[in-house]
Amino acid sequence: MNKHSNILKDALKILSISEVSESKLRFSLQKKGYGENEISEVLCYLRKRNLINNSRLCTILTEKHIRRKKGINYIREILSLHGIPEDIISSTLAKIYPESLEYKLAKDIVESLKKPLSEAILKLKSRGFSERTIEKLTEEKSGQQGDS
Fold it and tell me: Helix (H) and strand (E) counts for the chain?
């Protein structure tokens, strides 16, 4: 790795600022003028030492946005913008953010807003909640109003 010490230093500097996906790191190193072969070697070196890990980054970002009460569509878009491959996104979301959790978060948001359902639905859509979750909540709320 000696002959690649400059590229490695640049890569580690980027990673010291924040964890990034392989794709984002590759792009940053390309912008600095490094060639594909040396970038691939450095990425391999970093991957072997677990200094870059798309699955770990995906989990961190997913958990962060769940805490911020964001919907699955919002989170999927953010992960995609970070350059995380779709297969990793799908498997991580399936494990960490099941439909039942999204529904619970959406229900909590609707109940905390204390606004008409139509306004609450707009809020959920803006936070990236799935149509399925929104429909389920709408049906539930409509059923409750009919019970009154």
Answer: 9, 0
In whole angstroms, what is the distance from residue 134 CA to residue 146 CA?
18
Q: Which of 79, 68, 70, 66 has its CA nearest to residue 123?
A: 70
Establish how many alpha carbons lie within 13 A of residue 44's alpha carbon, considering only the half-sphere containing its beta carbon: 8
Tell which CATH classification among 3.40.50, 3.30.420, 1.10.10, 1.10.3470 matches the domain 1-52.
Answer: 1.10.10
Contact 36, 93 (CB under 8 A): no
Q: At residue 126, does pLDDT exceed 90?
A: yes
* DSSP 3-state of 36: helix
Amino acid 148: pLDDT: 43
Nearest to 96 by CA among 123, 122, 72: 72
Q: Is 21 helix (H, G, I), strand (E, B) or coil?
A: coil
pTM of this structure? 0.86
Summarize pLDDT for 54-105 with one digit per residue, the tens: 999 999 999 999 999 999 999 999 999 999 999 999 999 999 999 999 999 9
